[in-house]
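[job 4471] stage=fold_predict status=RUNNING
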Amino acid sequence: MAAVGKERVKLLSRFLLIWILLGNYSVFFFGCALHPVLLQEVGPGRKVYSSASPADLSGSIRSVSKVSQEDSHIKEALKKLHERRPELEELIERPYGMILVTGPTGCGKTTTLYTVLNKLNVPSRNIMTIEDPVEIRLPYLRQIQVHTEIGLSFASALRAIVRQDPDVILVGEIRDNETATIGLQAALTGHMVLSTLHTNDAPGAIARMRDYNLPAFVINSAVLGIVAQRLVRRLCQNCAVPDAVDDMMLHRFGLDAQDKKSFMRNVGCPRCGQTGYRGRVGLYELLKFTAPIQTLVEQGGSTKKIRERAIREGMRQMWHDGLEKARLGQTSLEEVAKMAAVVAVTDSTGDVRKSA
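[job 4471] inference complete, writing structure tokens
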């Protein structure tokens, strides 16, 4: 966001000194039309979700802004999944079950979930959401804002709305055993449940659910699939040039010498603010609960074993998705390297593969 926009955020937050000392937090919505600079930066038909909080006792305030994808913009987001799109669409067409989206804060999990909701959103379908906060508004949805001060948590709200016969339920985040248990029970009793977890990859979500003391047979019966994702910077197509990748990077990704000239790198121009990047692109992996994966979960298999089996079952990992998009010139190999911690994984045949 432009500097003038950030100053406006801080002004609208209306912080007093006593609030700064107490460490309070202020969150609000405002439309792009409030300032021409903001309108130019995020485009029409989209909103900026901004938050501001005290950075230290000196009175300085730090603001963080997100651009919410709304209306027609969100309809295109599912296309970014590329070859994973048909598999995900197959899962969301199921009448019941749970689909999880995992990744760190700010990686686009909410946008992915709302893209799914937008595809499912018809007047005849009862869709209810529980979020903290509600960042995106869609017609026909019944959206509930979590308010822990009055006892309205994810768990209590979820317990209430399952009695209102929803077809689809979105839980903003699974944070505790109670929310996870109620969510899985809802998925087993005829509801499609969408939610998020904070894990590094898709197989890691299974270990997180075990941490919540969820039985393996319940996980297998309820969970349809897990999507893990990251965002990397998109190369500016106005100034990107071929990249001469060094041998160390080639070795890290298991590439051949002939791949040296297959990638692009950032340079910088006025159009991208001299950064060489403009926008972001998503990297994805999709873990489907096939019969072999369910067997491993039932047996208490480790995350490593589940990952190896998922690769043999056809799971394409995030680093591999990033490598393909780097070859297409959408991002740089350097950006993929920042995202992917590449380690060697040996499968049962003795072949060495790479894993994020």
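[job 4471] summary: The chain has 14 helices and 14 strands.
[job 4471] exit 0
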